[in-house]
TrEMBL record:
Gene3D superfamilies: Periplasmic binding protein-like II, Porphobilinogen deaminase, C-terminal domain. This is Porphobilinogen deaminase. One of its GO terms (cellular component) is cytoplasm. NCBIfam families: hemC (TIGR00212). The lineage of its organism: Bacteria, Pseudomonadati, Pseudomonadota, Betaproteobacteria, Nitrosomonadales. It comes from Nitrosomonas marina. It holds the Pfam family Porphobil_deam.
Amino acid sequence: MSSSFSIPKRITIASRESLLAMWQAKHIRQCLIQLYPQTEVNILGMTTQGDQILDKSLSKIGGKGLFIKELEQALEDGRADIAVHSMKDMPMNVPEGFILAAITEREDPRDAFVSNQYKNLEELPSGSIVGTSSLRRESQLRAQFPHLNVNPLRGNVQTRLRKLDEGQYAAIILAAAGLKRLELSDRITALLNPEQSLPAVGQGALGIECRHDRPDLVALLQPLHHHKTAYCVQAERAMSRVLGGSCQIPLGAFAEIENNQLKLRGFVASPDGTQFVRDAVSGNLENGEEMGKNMAQNLIAQGADKILAAIETQHSW
């Protein structure tokens, strides 16, 4: 293979140690081995703060950045060359000194309804306990199904399924991508379309991060970069960035490509689902960043700023 960059003898991937994170790291490792068979590719498994604090919701302990700080530290001090993340766990602003070198092709971006007793959300009796890990899902559930009790659900995929099987919840909502990657598709009772549960920013895509001063790695990773997914994720992240997107804010954004046009949908809501603003825009693929910013302004014009201000006031208590 001819290339304008030198192919390293060894690449080390930093990853969280959960089964899903390790699947993702192994997937990227396999892709790199196929591309560069002479290169030795290793995985450095790490436990992050986000994995250690399981008794509080992410929105109360500092957000999704807790899942990546240790991985970035490993990049910083040279223990690892690249880090693999779920794009939905990536903070909206990549820290100085690092770069998102590639975004992989998206797996199913939808949320999955999982239950041992009921076929769908509509079947759940009043008062049923539904478990979810995100304010985004919680606000959408409360808006559409105010008769249900939505409770926090932390832990890895296996832990969440165990809690369901033990009867702690009538149903739980998980990302379909994670279940499919772990070959747990048979646990999916129903897939929720974006109209019912708009996905998280970047849901289903993987991001590969490296240090900013490693253009050789950026070049090396380009075959794994999926341009159509990147266009979509760029638009979603642009919208979220303007609105200060984090775990503390119930917002969703989902872009897809139809007839070579980018279609972006987004919402902001109060955690209890009583206030809800949404918007949809379309445009050229290359204009995703601008579309995301415009949608954020449209949502602000509908009152998103007031919803966000109220949430900020609650969190400051």
